[in-house]
Amino acid sequence: MVSQTTELLKKELPLEQELVVLSEDVVTGLVLVDIINGFCTVGAGNLAPREPNRQISGMINESARLARLFCDKKLPVMAFLDSHHPDKPEHPYPSHCIAGTDESNLVPALRWIENETNVTIRRKDCYDGYLGSMEVDGSNVFVDWVKNNQIEAILVVGVCTDICVLDFVCSTISARNRGFLAPLKDVIVYSRACATFDVPLQIARNTKGVLAHPQELMHHVGLYMAKERGAKIVNEVSFGAPK
Questions:
Q1: What is the mean pLDDT of residues 95-122?
Q2: Under a CB-based contact definition with an 8 Å cutoff, are residues 23 and 240 in contact?
């Protein structure tokens, strides 16, 4: 039934994806959203997958591959890590990714980026990395990262496609449109390096306070809504030679 609904949705909301060739004449930054144990490593926490998941595994592999390419080229990388205070729950979700626990740390495939000089790591305590980059003095770590590196395009990957990735993309596009993020022009979401979680309807019906969240359907919805806001959605990424 879910697969039929998903196919119907894809027919009603078709998502045309592109191939992007990242020009080395343009400064492109890589944004890694919440690729941490608490969302991606089997059994690591309340919101972690209960068993191996192909969409999540593919997202990790593609994100790690891109991170290596960007680091080899010394291009700017920013990683958002969901990190919550135990006394500040994030409803409607159960306790997750508590600061200081391994849940809030990068997955093993990406831990190496912590030692890379071109990588900025930002721990955040909300869905949206843009808002989570705000400091008490009104400055914004993400905005500063874009401006200091003169970033003209960002490539966004991570989890969850329809929650933290989408919220970050929407805020970033709004800020760009208002002129807060010059010289940023393009916000690109790489679909094969994004993923979301799966809660089948039958489980949601039998679990108080839990909403159904079919993975493939919600992944598509997240990408569609990001494109509707003005992001470029791509399913293949490569680097081109300088002109």
A1: 94
A2: yes
